[in-house]
Predict the 3D structure of the following.
Amino acid sequence: MPNVYFKPVDSYSKTKEVNAAAAELLKMIVEKEEIKLHSFIPLKVHIGEKGNKTFIEPKNFDGIIDYLEEKKIRTAFIETNVLYRGQRNTMQNHLKLAKEHGFTRVPVLIGDGEYGEDYVLVEINKKNFTHCKIARSIAEEKQLIVLSHFKGHMLAGFGGAIKQLAMGCASKGGKLEQHSNSIPKINIIKCRACKACAANCPEGAILVGKRARIDKNKCVGCAACMAACPYKAIFSNWIASFITKRFEEKLAEYAYAAAKGKENIYITFALNITRNCDCVGLSMRPIAKDIGILASTDPVAIDQACLDMLDKRENRKVFRKGRYTLQYAENIGLGSRTYDLVELK
Ligand code: SF4
Ligand code: SF4
């Protein structure tokens, strides 16, 4: 059974404490799990969409980088281009935003080229995909430290290590393959034609007359409009998803491909827990108290542990959707939903 190491942190704003906890967890997992560290280990991060205020800021990764530097291990931040237009859509724009968001201590690499064209087809032979399009710079590495922010997600239900692997390591085409059945729907009774969705749609896929309408030929299923609608008039086609479970399965399969053959370390920040993800370029308020930082070599176990802790803390299932992802991920051999929690005092 995999171990999940946990260090409580009661406030995201305590940067020193966050850094110390993350570094302690990394040291602990390397020693206890006898992990052989490679000479170069990229840090898979999410640099946060422009306007988002709750992504995990790079100043919180200093403790991890200090630890690697002490061990004489080279590192870099690594990211991939997103599907929709905007600040993270091309390498140049992405690098500019990374700098604005403070990702300057180590080099930033955009793993799938200028426009998302540079990827490796990783063979997995699973139910939905035989091959997955993983960003070349990620596919070619043997070890990553996957730094995830645990929070909600409009389509996936929640996001943690699996989401960071699946969407975060896929090239643009890989993201599209995962999203392709995820075009949202508009409830025309609730819609008040306020145009907030159109203003936030990165693809110009929404036309608003008396009511909003989504052009299916342009929509890439990014879900930005769902988060932007103030009247909750846009919803994902969860009925189809619920029946077919395709989106969750695709996520798990892409995560499997991104992790295949690697000796990864997963560190998840269960801090600043928001309803929506860091791709949403809006200011959001946390919906739960900070929990702390977790580390594991198992992406399924660490996500399960985050959910379990949040459920326990809030005495309810805060994120109801997306739990099948973990079940399916376990079924295909990505990891284990049962784990031993090792709490660092
Ligand atoms: S944001 Fe919501 S209410 Fe406003 S136009 Fe779009 S769907 Fe309608
Ligand atoms: S319509 Fe919504 S889901 Fe589709 S591209 Fe626009 S914002 Fe994204």
Summary: The two ends are 22 Å apart (CA to CA). The mean pLDDT is 92.
